[in-house]
Write a structure and sequence with these properties.
A hairpin with a 3-residue loop joins strand 1 and strand 2. The chain contains 1 helix and 2 strands, in the order ββα. It has a domain of about 40 residues. About 10% of the residues are buried. It is of the alpha+beta class.
């Protein structure tokens, strides 16, 4: 099961290109920004978006599980 990224304005996307992990790099002054729960803790929406993303990702329906202001592409 893959996780999903949901942007509050644009909806779902999965084009994460890379992740770099630096085990010895420390920066305690780096501000920590809290994430936004765009699904408002609604478990049925969580299950819905995960099923759409993992089982039917080709139809892009997972992108619009929440109301979006703009889309990435048409």
């Amino acid at each position: 099961m893959m996780g999903v990224c949901l942007h509050p304005k644009y909806g779902g996307w999965f084009a994460l290109r890379s992740v770099l992990v630096f085990k010895t790099l420390k920066y305690p002054l780096l501000p920590r920004i809290s994430s936004i729960d765009v699904l408002n803790g609604d478990e049925s929406l969580v299950v819905d978006v995960l099923k759409r993303f993992n089982d039917c990702w080709e139809d892009n329906s997972y992108r619009n599980v929440i109301p979006v202001a703009e889309t990435y592409s048409s």
